[in-house]
Amino acid sequence: MINRLSKWGIIQSGFLDIQIGVPTQMITAPVNPSEFAARVQIDVNTSPEIREISSKAVPEIIAKLRSFALEIAEKGDTP
Q1: Is residue 14 within 8 Å of 36, Cβ to Cβ?
Q2: Whole-prediction pTM
């Protein structure tokens, strides 16, 4: 059994002109987003019931977990 958990986030940012020398105040101004980014935190792991993994099985298991992580990053976490 493999546990799959992903948390997606998005950020929008933009540029704002600030005048230097103006008394410091809290500036609240709408910014038109011009930059966008997405981030995914992926946690793919084996079931907690597995107490010990043989050293021969480790490379295969890591490859499988990696393939699940890449799949989530490319397609989203779909069953």
Answers
A1: no
A2: 0.50
